[in-house]
Amino acid sequence: MAISPAAPACIVLAHEDPSHVRRLVEALDPFPVFLHCDARTPETVFRAMTDGLPDRVRLLPRIRTGWAKWENVAAEVEGYRAALAETDATHVAVLTGSDYPLAHPDEVRTLLEAHREESFIATHPLPYPEWGRDGGVARIRYRHWAWRKQMLRLPVPRRVPRDVVFAGGSQLKVLARRHASAVVDAVDSRPDLVRFWRRTWVADETFVPSVLSSPALTPGFDDEHVPHGLWWIGWDGTARKSPPWLTTADAGRLLEHRTMPDVELPHVFARKFSTARSSDLLDVVDGAFGLRPGAVPAVSGVVAP
């Protein structure tokens, strides 16, 4: 039986900036895209984001997502479910609507072909020192609610599932097909875990890493993943909850970092971008990596890697 070439299906979780989301969809061609638009997004923005999209794009059921809420995980899982059912993709990538590729599709395929059965995700067992004084354990140990971008915590410890190895990691990830399936199976077969994570702080940073890190839920994962994120994120060293928007001022460090010859595994995606702040920079990225051919004029002085 012939084996299909490695290729990802791409989940895109978006809520604003339809012009950038459409540009992102174009840059991901020819990969299938499963697009989720937050149910809170105004209808005019939703229509601008979705009308006339190519056939390789599927719209996911709209869920009312929000900052630090379980529903972000629910939307991600619906993306896995659809990608597994509708494609034979070897991997599933999870992107936000402010991300963008930093590699030609052929380079992405080559990378995934070398890791056909492996996921790309850096998971950190809790406590994780970079997550504050308690290493993020309180996110799990106590019940939480998000209200107007504020954390509400019930200061009464709760019982935690015994068969789960708690871990954290980024929402941005590329999962091998069997690992995406394991996440869906955990949601479908373990309603107790769904109930537990509904009250866990920033569930999209702990649910999937914990499911994958738990031998009872995903046996063999430790030997089947690359502990390396595929995103370059333009943190600038200042204390902030989310990374800054990238502009042309960031072009040098973005391209230099991406094309360094001694990098063992490249970052093939980056964030975060917007139409208002990043269009000129994205023209440079398109020119450097051969994205959206014919849609963007050639950029002088940029040499493709």
Walk me through this protein's architecture.
It is a single chain. This protein has 305 residues and is an alpha/beta fold. The protein has one domain: Spore Coat Polysaccharide Biosynthesis Protein SpsA, Chain A (Alpha-Beta Complex), CATH 3.90.550. It has helices at residues 18-27, 43-50, 71-86, 105-113, 137-141, 177-189, 191-198, 207-213, 251-258, 275-289; strands at residues 8-14, 33-37, 57-59, 91-96, 99-101, 119-120, 124-125, 143-147, 150-154, 167-168, 173-176, 225-226, 231-233, 269-271. A five-stranded mixed beta sheet has the order 3-2-1-4-11, with helices on both faces. Strand 13, helix 9 (251-258) and strand 14 (269-271) form a beta-alpha-beta unit. The chain is globular and about 55 Å long. The two termini are 35 Å apart.
Write down how many β-strands occur, each being a DSSP E stretch of 2 or more residues. 14
Assembly category: single chain
Structural class: alpha/beta
Q: Roughly what fraction of the amino acids lie in strands? A: 15-25%
Major β-sheet, in short?
5 strands, mixed
Count of domain modules:
1
CATH architecture: Alpha-Beta Complex
Total helical segments: 10
Q: Class, according to the CATH hierarchy?
A: Alpha Beta
